[in-house]
Structure formats: structure tokens, C-alpha cells
Amino acid sequence: MTHNPSVKIVLKALLLSAAMSSLAACASTPPDQGPSKTAATETQQWVDRIKVTSSPDEIVLAAHAAGLSANQNAALQDLFGRWMQAEGRELVVTTPNAAGAMGGQIRDRLIFLGAPASRVRVVGFQPTGPEDNAIRVGFLRYEAQPLKCGQNWENLAATRDNKAYDNFGCAMAANMAAQVANPEDLVRPRDMTPTDAGRRGVVFGKYRKGEITATERDQSSAGLISRAIP
Questions:
Q1: Which pLDDT score is estimated for 179?
Q2: What is the pLDDT of residue 33?
Q3: What would the mean pLDDT of 185-199 be, rounded to a whole number?
Q4: 35-55 average pLDDT score
Q5: Are residues 71 and 93 in the same domain?
Q6: Do 152 and 70 fall into the same domain?
Q7: Quick check: is 108 in a domain?
Q8: Pairing of strands 120-125, 91-96
Q9: 29 vs 214: CA distance, rounded Å
Q10: Distances in Å between the alpha carbon of 119 and those of 8, 137, 143?
């Protein structure tokens, strides 16, 4: 069998051309736009159309040298209740620099009511006038705007293209927007809760000693049938 050098040259040229074409195709491919740009399904498209707005829920307190008054304590308690119900993220105390001590009292009061210390922040500022010499305490409240379904209905019997009609998924997204406890969950995920360092230390301690790391079973949870007295 004879080998033709010209055939080898042609084959090498074809392989090189194919490789260059594939590289050019990869370079011209647009980057991934992500799920918010190109929805995977028609239902996801409707979920992306839910509009979530935010507005501050805050109270304005006058600065007192003697500290918080009874009315201010009651207003803080009501604000804390609304913050708990709305599952808010952070309580912000905006206070003039001259009333920094009262800002600390407000923070202590919110922590006493049950707010985690890491979620109560005090921000100081320099007032520009007498009308700006007040303390504001509040958080951001999120609200999901309702969707309007049932518009632009087309012929539902025309299924020759096997495509979903325009309103497919709108009712589900509208129910989600109306029932979600915290609409902020539709905007971004919640922060991860801290780990239980104490329990982790106990488990690792038992593991290093070669002991069983599972919790001991309580006899009351054995599920045995009680023996009734005849």
C-alpha cells in the first residue's frame, strides 16, 4: 500500500479548518443570561413578573434627656410586633449625635423585647436644623403587587403548535404573591442561621474518643404499648 503525501496535506488542512470553525462558534456564543433573563418554563416567566416594592415602616421619637417615655416604650413595642409579623431583616435606629445615649436605650429596649442584637443597628448623624433633631426607628417592609390575569386570551382550542397559552401560570403566580408571608423571599434568599457550635463540639469530642455521636434515646419515646391494669 502506497502513501500519497498530498492526501496527508489535504487531510491536515481539513482538520485545522474544522478546529478553527469550532473555536469561532464558541467565541460567538452569547454568555448565559441566567434564569431571570431566560425563564425555563412559562410558569417561571409569570413568577419573574411579580413586582415586589419596599417602603419604610418607622416611628419618629423626640429626644428626651430623661430617656424613653411611657408612650415611646409603647410605640417601640408596637413597631417590634409589626417587625416580627413582617419577618423584617434589620431594625435601624437613626439618631442625632447629641442623642446617642437615647439611641443606645432604644437598642437595648428592642433587644429586651426579643430582637437579636445583631439585627439592631444604631446610625448617628449630624442634624442640619431644629426640625431634623428627632430619632427614627424602623425597618423596610416589602409588598408583592398583585398580578392581573385573564387578559389577552386566545383560542385555547388551537393547539396545533403545542404551545402554552399566554396566561398559563398567571393564576399560580398571583396566588403566590398573595399568600407569601414575606414578599422579600421573592427578591433574595434569607440569611443563613448560625451553626450550633456547642452541639458541634460535643459531637466532635465523642468522635475523637470513639464514642457514639448520636443522641441518647429517651425511654418515653420507645413507642411501647402501655400495659393497662386489668
A1: 86
A2: 42
A3: 77
A4: 74
A5: yes
A6: no
A7: yes
A8: parallel
A9: 52
A10: 72, 13, 21
